[in-house]
Specification:
The chain has helices at 93-98, 120-136, 157-165, 182-194, 216-222, 239-248, 261-273, 296-307, 312-318, 321-327, 356-361, and strands at 13-16, 20-22, 30-31, 35-39, 42-47, 59-62, 67-70, 72-77, 84-85, 90-91, 102-107, 143-145, 170-174, 198-201, 226-227, 252-256, 280-283, 342-346, 367-373, 376-379, 393-395. It is α/β, with parallel strands linked by helices. The structure holds zinc ion. Zinc ion binds at residues 173, 202, 207, 228-229, 233.
């Protein structure tokens, strides 16, 4: 493997010879393009090589016919600080996940912090601290959007205004704290939304001792922006309730790895029947009791494509453009103006699938050949995926 592992984000980078360009946009998942131009960390051109300005290029990446997709977004993680998780006492889990093609992680609450404060001043302080820490430090280059307070009974609108003014833009999973009633949660969601803070709600049975059941009536009354782990985390609501959530809510339908796989598959099928697949987003809900899953998002993609019989290029949108749209991110799509967060994929060696999309549809996870964040190469051949048949090359 030649070339730098990191280059100045301000330099122009050109990617050529892309065999398959996946946009992340569910309305048009495959682009007729083989070239991407990146300047100052953003995509400035996508098209055919002959139509792109390749002059003054600093770094050239020959994709060697592999697939280029937007970097994957994990809509549901529980980070603490740095690249350490006390849940499984593991170092380097975020770097490991980068090797699974993930370039952005969204915190659903820093709930695993030992001794996590639950008083209102303390929970606000923790959220602001986590937001600051992950803004100042990206483990392995991964964008971790954190500082997601677990709301507690007694919070008033001024608390949400204070959090928003301090830079907090997310709520942790509603239901992990003392706010478990629909009306109370709904009022806080309204306050949060008024101040520009996104919300997500725990759906289903208790996750770990101390959490509780959130059923469909509470989810509908709370009306959070994202129906967090609609397939449970781990314990799912009955399928009839999940269907009702898909049908009666217009919010995001988040399917997670650490959930009920059967209900996850059925949810994806039902969302397509309802013609609202653009609402489906993917997360891991890791680290969790079942461990750290560096390939969790890739595994979700292969699971849903194969078991729900959904074209792989569509399922990849669930983990990229759909999440970016619902979460208002500037990544998640291969389009001019977007952050150059990108992953090179190819069919895993020896997969029965003849190409990348068929291999995923047959249930195999792909191999990751390279990952860029803001146009900077953060890893080359993944240390965690099965080997990609072909990997891109960095030309000096
Ligand atoms: Zn949860």
């Amino acid at each position: 493997m030649s070339g730098p592992t990191e280059q100045a984000a301000s330099r122009k980078t050109v990617i050529t010879n892309v065999g398959l360009m996946l946009s992340g946009d569910i309305t048009r998942p495959i682009l007729e393009a083989d070239t991407v131009v990146i300047e100052a960390g953003r995509i400035t051109a996508v098209g055919r090589e002959a139509d792109c300005d390749l002059a003054m290029t600093g770094v050239r990446i020959d994709a060697r016919g592999t697939t280029l997709a937007p970097g994957l977004i994990d809509s549901h993680v529980h980070p603490v600080f740095g690249d350490w998780t006390p849940r499984q006492n593991q170092l380097g889990w975020i770097e490991s996940t980068l090797n699974g093609g993930v370039t952005t992680m969204i915190s659903a609450g820093e709930v695993h912090l030992p001794g996590r404060p639950k008083d209102i001043v303390g929970l606000k302080a923790l959220a602001i601290t986590a937001q600051r820490c992950f803004t100042n430090f990206r483990p392995a280059g991964v964008k971790v959007l954190a500082g997601a307070p677990i709301i507690e009974t007694g919070m008033v609108e001024a608390d949400f205004a204070e959090l928003a003014a301090a830079g907090v833009s997310l709520l942790g999973e509603i239901g992990l704290g003392s706010v478990k009633a629909g009306a109370e949660a709904g009022q806080m969601v309204v306050w949060a939304r008024k101040h520009g803070i996104q919300s997500t709600i725990h759906t289903g049975g208790p996750s770990i001792p101390g959490s509780g059941l959130i059923d469909k009536d509470v989810v509908l009354e709370a009306d959070a922006d994202i129906i967090g782990h609609i397939n449970g985390g781990h314990t799912s609501l009955p399928y009839g309730q999940v269907c009702e959530l898909c049908e009666r809510s217009r919010r995001g339908l988040e399917i997670v790895h650490n959930g009920n796989e059967r209900i996850g598959i059925l949810t994806a099928i039902h969302a397509r029947e309802l013609k609202c697949a653009e609402r489906v987003i993917l997360g891991t809900d890791g680290p969790a009791g079942s461990g750290v899953q560096p390939l969790g998002i890739l595994r979700m993609i292969a699971l849903l494509s194969s078991m729900a019989d959904i074209p792989a290029e569509e399922v990849i949108c669930y983990a990229t453009g759909n999440t970016a749209r619902m979460r208002q991110l500037d990544s998640g799509m291969i389009a001019v103006g977007r952050a150059a967060d990108l992953v090179f994929l190819d069919r895993a060696e020896a997969s029965a699938g003849k190409d990348l999309l068929e291999s995923i549809h047959l249930g195999d996870i792909p191999g990751v050949g390279m990952v860029l964040v803001d146009g900077v190469i953060r890893c080359q051949r993944s240390r965690n995926t099965p080997p990609a048949t072909q990997v891109p090359a960095v030309l000096a």
